[in-house]
Each structure stands twice: as C-alpha cells, then as structure tokens.
Design goal:
This protein is α+β, with helices and mostly antiparallel strands and 207 residues long. The chain is 25% helix and 25% strand. The longest helix has 48 residues.
Length: 207
C-alpha cells in the first residue's frame, strides 16, 4: 500500500480514537460527578443527624430521617448567562414567620431548561456576619408543593466578578430549615423567581 493511501486511513483512525476517548471520558466525568453528589448528600445526612447546627438537633420535637432527593441528573447542571443589575436596589423578602429580610440585587441568570427560557434574580447577602457579600438564590418551580417544599428551595452560588456565565447546579438545590421545623425563619423567593418549569433535581419535600 502506498504512502498516499495509508495517510488518509491514519487520519480516520486518529479521529475515531479521539471521538471514542471523548465519549468515554465524558461518561467517566458524569459518573464521577454523580458519585460526588451522592457523597455530599450522605455527608449532609450525617450533619443533620448529629451536628449542633442541625435543625433536628436544635428542635428536639422533630425526628431525623434521611433526606429525600431526586436522582442526580447532569442536565440540571446549567450554565446560565449573567445579566448584571444596573442601579441596584434593596429587595425585601417576606419570611415564613411573618417578618422581613433584606438583600441587595446582584444579577439576573438566564437559562433554558426542558425547552423553557427562565430568568432568576440573584441576591447578595447584606447582613453583617460570615455570609455578608455572598450570593443567595431562592426559587420555586412546577414541582413546588408537589414533590418539593412548597415555599421554594435555595441554591448557594459563587461570586465570580466579571464572569459572563454562572453555574446553576440544581442537583444541589436544598430546603430551608423551615421545611423541617416551624421554629426557623426562612425568606420566600421573590416573585420573579417562580419559574414555569419543573426542576426535578435536588432535595424533595421532607414531610
């Protein structure tokens, strides 16, 4: 076989190998991600059962049982485009115990999930303390009051100044403490964060 004939064959083999490697490494990456999510959930169960900061430890009237979750699904790990809020203002959210909590507008996150375009308002914590300046996202969706807590769920986000996108990992969506006990005060999501899509990911309702 001449060199001219061998060269195209080698190119095909190299490309095929690259594709196989790409698919296999992607699969391994997804498996590793799912394993990490399950590990985090097991660690949270241990925290909820034993730690002094746990609502189950602080409120002895509620018995601990393992938390309920949707199965991890990589499609709910979304890269949202970030739209910074111009002329930021304070937002006041009502809480589960009839009080109010203040946050500062930070940015809007736009994303498409299950064919639906959504936009969520990301807030910045302004209270003095260890969480001052960190980002806060409360949302409700089509699973709320059905499979998930009716008053919405939360996501912790990392602030990346100047970034055009932000990762929203809904597999890590969690319930506020008032989902377990009425003794806790939890802010409700702002009205614009009630989205018309079922986000079947993260923590389910406890009771």
């Amino acid at each position: 076989m001449t060199a001219k004939k061998i060269f195209p064959i080698l190119i095909v083999i190299v490309i095929a190998g690259m594709l196989i490697y790409s698919f296999s490494s992607g699969s391994e990456s997804a498996e590793q991600y799912i394993s990490e999510i399950k590990k985090e959930r097991a660690e949270k169960d241990n925290f909820m059962k034993k730690d002094e900061g746990s609502p189950f430890v602080q409120d002895s009237t509620i018995a601990f049982s393992p938390l309920h979750y949707f199965e991890p699904d990589v499609k709910y790990r979304v890269n949202a485009s970030i739209e910074p809020v111009q002329n930021k203002k304070m937002v006041v959210l009502a809480t589960s115990d009839g009080k109010e909590k203040k946050y500062m507008e930070y940015a809007y996150a736009r994303f498409k999930l299950n064919g639906v375009e959504s936009k969520l308002l990301i807030l910045e914590i302004v209270d003095m303390g260890p969480y001052k300046g960190t980002l806060f996202l409360a949302f409700a969706d089509e699973t709320s009051a059905k499979e998930t807590y009716g008053a919405g769920r939360y996501l912790d986000l990392k602030k990346v100044p100047g970034a055009a996108t932000l990762l929203l990992d809904f597999n890590k969506a969690y319930n506020p403490y008032c989902a377990y006990s009425e003794k806790f005060s939890c802010p409700f999501p702002p009205s614009e964060n009630i989205v018309k899509v079922a986000i079947a990911a993260g923590e389910k309702t406890f009771h």
